[in-house]
Amino acid sequence: MKRIATAALSVVLLATAGCTNDGGGSNNSGGSTNVPGVTGTEIVVGTHMPLTGPAAGGYSKIAPATKAYFDYVNANGGVHGRKITYKIKDDGYNPANTQTVVRELVLQDKVFAILNGLGTPTHTGVLDFLKTNRVPDLFVASGSRSWNQPDKYPGTFGFNPDYTVEGKILGTYIKENLAGKKTCFLGQDDDFGRDSLAGVEKVLGAVAAKESYVTSNPNVGPQMGALKAAGCEVVVLATVPGFTALSIGTAAKIAFKPQFVVSNVGADPTTVGKALGAGAPLLEGVVATNYLPLNTDEANPWIQLFKKINAEHNGNAEFDNNIVYGMSVGYLFVQALQAAGKDVNRDKLLEAVTKNGFQGPGLVPLRFSATDHSGYAGAQLTKVEGGKAVFFGTPYTTDDADGPVAPHQGQPAAPPPNGVPAA
Amino acid sequence: MTAIEARPATSTKTMPGAPRRRRVHPAIVIVVGAVLVVALTYVLPPFRNYQLATVGAYFCVTAGLTVLTGLNGQLSLGHGALMATGAYTLALSQNKWENLPLSFALAVLVTTAVGAVIGLAAARLRGPYLAGLTLAVAIVVPSVTSTFDETFNSDQGLSVMLNPPPEQYPMEQWQAWLCWAAALIVVLLLALLVRGRFGRDLRAVRDDETAAKLAGINIARTQVLAFVVSAACAGVAGALFAYLAQSVSPGAFPLTLSLFLLMAIVIGGLGSLFGALWGALLLVVLPTLSQSVGEHAGSQRLEGNLALIVFGVVLVVVMLAAPGGLASIPSRISRLIRRNR
User: From residue A360, how far is each of A268, A421, B77 by CA, in Å?
Assistant: First the structure.
């Protein structure tokens, strides 16, 4: 019978653990409204991020930057009198961990919405769970086309231009400037790599050689060797920052010097340069895209605003494009909350996002509508010169089908004087 | 489960003076367990129910592993890979036929078959060589999924098509029931299996192969059978994990999972099914605890790494304080009391 007593004890232990934490969580769910995560004074939002693991390089700075922007908004009175609490959970870029931490955020912490969950393989696995629980899933930090399925996932919206759109823009650059050169492709072995390749091939036709990598294996020697052997002169990289550095470094080691053309998500020169260490000069001349102001553009009013917030609320972290990205996400979310009104609930938030009309730091418009849930509509090309990325040409917009890659006309908006979007 | 003597070979000498305890039939313990679990699912909040379900899934594999390692003395570092086999089989079958009972059956069958193959090789190997072989199996999982990425979809993995549970039950409660139903059935079968002749064979082979052979026990057959039984349990656990997460990916079955499983059964008490329950509980509770500690300490980056340290420390402490594992603590205490009377 002692063993039964042991079993009973363990059961009681588990139950107590459950109750203690439930007590903590109920502070968030109680209050005047019946909307999960929303009280009269607070809105709780959650995210999953690779703070550790193979994609942590660079990306681990995004969520703290978003949080810093929210802290700035909170210090300026919050949104409709409510302060935003941002719960950041580390999933290590491991889809299995994402499952657990997102369940914890939704079921235990009772967040109002999931914001900017990062990663194609990671976030893909929680789409169904978020849909079943009717949790708004806003501004996913990835450009996979999976976020843009309004019928299947009505609550999911992207943020980045989707990888096919970006691939088409990169392809157009190659077609116009590097015509006749042998173009090859190295991509992550998931929807990120595949969508990007699809875009490049829509413009250029089939590439001469293509290789893929997995984040669980930090060695791209065989892939770069194969691309060198194929005689590639241009290599398109659909890689996370750590693997951009690895690819460029590995290529240099085997005396392989193609023109690298890199997807935006893996192209921040500060992050990649740091990973390359003494090899940072290898980045010179690398072409990439961006759709937000560049961190080094001191004259840009958005950069001035974000730098100020970074100094005041983010411990003056090294100011790179991940911070610009994180704060832009925060700005957009506050815009959406303002638009959703004082009596905010999940449906109103989604309505506000669908209605769109957001003017922010982006160089191109956001695409959100009832039939389109993808994020930014395009991007502008950048080139690394003197260790800094600089824009050239004009921003382009296009779609993920066979639409043309067209120059975008229109001036970017200026930030509001106090840095907080108006209702 | 009371049928199993929880002691590893080294501590058998502590028993002779103690009076023989009355044995409760395993079925009774299982029924009590089932009642407790069902009661729990009604009082726990959803996330705790999800964790309870995860404990159930872990219980399947730790129970199978403790029979293999604790009772038969075969060290397997590859049970994570066997779980992956079960999980991927469930995912592939489910996406093709959308028939959950069929998918579960297939998952167990395929894993059993894979376990038989590994077991055949394992029966020829001893000690570190066996550990090496099973280690290789655990390491190969991510490579297999990226080499055959058209079937397994590499690191991203597969999502699993599932029909929602009947409407009157919340998802997490349903998951807890399913996982614990499977776990309790697995454990009941194991308990019945090891209390009879098969269990004696297992222990005889573990303690002295020559003596066992002299007693007419077929060593290789016993070892292969032990591996197959244990693999089938891992297959059930893997299928449950795929069901719980609605997705499978190699990241869910890393090498550390196999090592954690082993650590869990050692901490719980090697060879004891109750120890396996403790182990399963720890596998869920320790990472959660260390995560909240990491959060309170204010370092987000600690969360990902702290669980490893905590597990190590707990292993050291338990081995120092109760070498027989957590499951041996009650009997140690009662023995102390009896001695002091």
Answer: 21, 9, 53
